[in-house]
From TrEMBL, chains A, B:
A Gene Ontology BP annotation from the UniProt entry: inositol biosynthetic process
Family indicated by similarity: Belongs to the inositol monophosphatase superfamily.
Domain of life: Eukaryota
Lineage summary: Eukaryota, Fungi, Dikarya, Ascomycota, Pezizomycotina
Reactions the enzyme catalyzes: a myo-inositol phosphate + H2O = myo-inositol + phosphate
Top EC class, one word: hydrolase
GO molecular function, one term: inositol monophosphate 1-phosphatase activity
SUPFAM superfamilies with a match to the protein in the record: Carbohydrate phosphatase
Name of protein: Inositol-1-monophosphatase
Positions of Mg(2+) binding: E84, D106, L108, D109, D256
Length: 334, 334
C-alpha cells in the first residue's frame, strides 16, 4: 500500500471537513424538526408526531450514514468504508480495518442524548491509513462545536482555536495526578447486576478515582471532578481540548473513537488500553489498538521541571491503572 | 410586603437578561484570556501566566459578583442581594432569603469546569420575591446557551425556543420511569471514604438508578443514561429543557439553584426534596425549600392517557425516592 502524501491528506481533510459540516447541518435540521421548528412542513410535522423518538433516531442515523457513504464513494471510490449502521447490519463481526485507506464513521454518536435532545451528540468522521487515524472530524451542531484534525496540520476547535486550548505553555499533568484532574467516564449500557460484572467493576474504579487521598486502602485518587456526558466521541474531543485530563472506558467500537483518537493524538494526547497490564508499574505504554474496545486517554501535556511531557502522561497512566479494574469487553466472534 | 405587578416583573426580567448577557461576555473574555486569545494585551498575558488557574478563577468570580452587585444596587437600591462570594466572606451562615425582593447570584457556577475550560460553566442570576424565584437567567457563554424565564412569560433557550423543547405535545414521564429517563447526578466535593458517608450513599443511589430492572433487590431503575456535568445550575437548565428527566442532588446552596428553579418551574417542571420522607409512597410532594440543600427535580411533562401531567411527575418522584438514600447535608449553624 503506497504512502499518502501531505498534499493528498490535505485534500482528504478538506473533503472531510466539508462533509462533517453538511452532515452536521442535516443532523441539526432533524433535531429542530423534533423541537417543532416553524420551518418544518406540515408533512414533516405529522411524520414526527407519528413516529416514536427511537424510530426517528434510527431513521436519522441511517439517512446520515447513507449520505456520508455516498459522498465518500463518489469522491474516493477505492477507499474502504466502515460505518456503525452498515456494520450492525453486516454479516461479519470481525474487526474490519486493515492497512487500506479506510473511512470510519459514526453518523450519530450520543444516541441517547439525541433522543432526549441533550446537546452532547455529534457526527464522527475519521480517515484511517495503515491502521492509523490520520484525519478526524467531530461535529456537535447543537453545541456549535466543530473539532477537526489532520496529521501534520494540528487539531482545532471551530477551525480557529488550536487544541489543546491552554498552550502558552501547555501545562504538565498535575504532580499528584489523578488528584487535580477532571476524570471522564461513562456508565454505559451493560447494567447487569452480577457480582464482579462490568457495571460493578466500573463503579469500583470510579469510586477509587474519586475518593479522598488515603481512602480506599490507599487507592483514593481525589480527582477534581467526575464527568459523564454519554458520548465517547465527545469525551475524546474534550480530552484533546485539555478540558478533561483522563478518560477511561470499555465497550466502545472503532467508529465511536476513530475520529476522537485522530484529534487527540494530533493535539499531543496519549491513548492506551483501559485494562492494567500485569506489571502495571513498569509495562511499556503502547498506543491503543483501534479495535480493542478498551481505552485510556490522557490529555496533551507539556513538560514539568523534572519530566518530559510524555513522562507526565505515562506517570498518570500508571496512577490510573493502579486504581481501576480490568473490564470484560471482547469482540463478538473474536 | 407589596405584591409585584407583571409590569414591574417584566422590567426586572429585561434588566436581568441584559445583566446576564453583559456578565456572560465578561466571563467569556476572562476564559479567552486564559486560552491566550490574540486580542489580549501584553500586560494581560503576563498576568495570566503569573497567576495559577485557581487564583485567576477566584479573581474572575469576585470581579463578576462585584459587577453584578453594583449594577443591581444602582437599579434597585432597595432590593436585597445574596451572592456566593459575599456570603462566603460574611459573618452569617444563616439562610438569608426572606420575603423581601432579593437577588440571588452565582457569578460562576461550575468552577472546576471553568478552571479546566470544560464548557459547562455559567452565570446564574435569580430574582426572588416572597421566597419564590420569579425570574431566572443562566448564561453559559462558552456553550452559546442562554436560559431565561419570567413568571407568567415562559422559559426560554436563547430567547427564541420555548422550554421544554419538545412541546407539541410535551410527553408524559415514561410509564416505567426511571426506566427510559436520563438521570443527572453529581459526585460533588464530599469524597470522604467513611462507611455510610455521603459519597457512599450517593453511589449506592446512583447504582440503584442505573442497574437493570430486577437487579439490586428490585431497586434497579435501568435509567436510559447517567450524566454528570459538574454544574448544578446547568443540570437544572437541562431538566427545564426536557433533556434530563431527573436530577437528584444534595449539598447545593441557594445561589446554585435559584435561577434554575425559576426556569424549571416556569417551564412546568417539579422540584421537591432529595431525601425520601418516611412514608415515601404516600407523603404529599411539596415544593422544595430553597435553602434546604436537598433537591429532586423532574422535567416538564404532559398528561398520559390515564394520568395528569402532575401525576406522571409525582409517580416518578416516588420511584426515585424508593431507590435513593437520605443524604446528610445541613446548613452550618442550622
Amino acid at each position: 500500500m503506497a504512502d499518502i502524501s501531505q498534499d493528498e491528506l490535505d485534500d482528504i481533510y478538506a473533503f472531510a471537513v466539508n462533509l462533517g459540516k453538511e452532515a452536521g447541518s442535516m443532523l441539526l435540521d432533524a433535531a429542530k424538526l423534533r423541537i417543532g421548528d416553524n420551518r418544518a412542513t406540515q408533512e414533516q410535522k405529522e411524520h414526527v408526531q407519528k413516529e416514536n423518538a427511537v424510530d426517528l433516531v434510527t431513521e436519522t442515523d441511517e439517512e446520515l450514514e447513507a449520505f456520508i457513504r455516498k459522498a465518500i464513494a463518489e469522491k474516493y471510490p477505492l477507499h474502504k468504508f466502515v460505518g456503525e449502521e452498515s456494520y450492525s447490519k453486516g454479516a461479519s463481526r470481525d474487526y474490519l480495518i486493515d492497512d487500506s485507506p479506510t473511512w470510519c464513521i459514526d453518523p450519530l454518536d450520543g444516541t441517547v442524548n439525541y433522543i432526549h435532545l441533550f446537546p452532547m451528540f455529534c457526527i464522527s468522521i475519521a480517515f484511517i491509513h495503515k491502521s492509523k487515524p490520520l484525519v478526524g472530524v467531530i461535529n456537535a451542531p447543537f453545541l456549535n462545536q466543530f473539532f477537526s484534525s489532520c496529521s501534520g496540520r494540528g487539531a482545532w476547535l471551530n477551525e480557529s482555536q488550536q487544541l489543546p486550548l491552554i498552550r502558552n505553555p501547555i501545562p504538565p499533568m498535575p504532580e499528584k495526578a489523578p488528584s487535580g484532574c477532571v476524570f471522564s467516564c461513562e456508565w454505559g449500557k451493560d447494567r447487569r447486576d452480577i457480582p464482579d460484572g462490568n457495571m460493578h467493576r466500573k463503579i469500583e474504579s470510579f469510586v477509587n478515582m474519586a475518593a479522598e487521598l488515603g481512602g480506599r486502602q490507599g487507592r483514593g485518587g481525589m480527582v477534581h471532578g467526575v464527568r459523564s456526558l454519554g458520548s465517547a466521541t465527545l469525551d475524546l474531543a474534550y480530552v484533546a481540548m485539555g478540558s478533561f485530563d483522563i478518560w477511561w472506558e470499555g465497550g466502545c467500537w472503532e467508529w465511536d473513537v476513530a475520529a476522537g483518537i485522530a484529534i487527540l493524538q494530533e493535539a499531543g494526547g496519549l491513548i492506551t488500553t483501559a485494562n492494567p497490564p500485569p506489571n502495571e508499574a513498569t509495562a511499556p505504554i503502547e498506543a491503543v489498538k483501534l479495535g480493542s474496545r478498551l481505552y485510556l486517554a490522557i490529555r496533551p501535556a507539556g513538560p514539568s521541571s523534572t519530566e518530559t511531557a510524555r513522562e507526565t502522561q505515562e506517570r498518570t497512566v500508571r496512577e490510573v491503572w493502579r486504581r481501576v479494574r480490568n473490564l470484560d469487553y471482547s469482540r463478538p466472534g473474536a
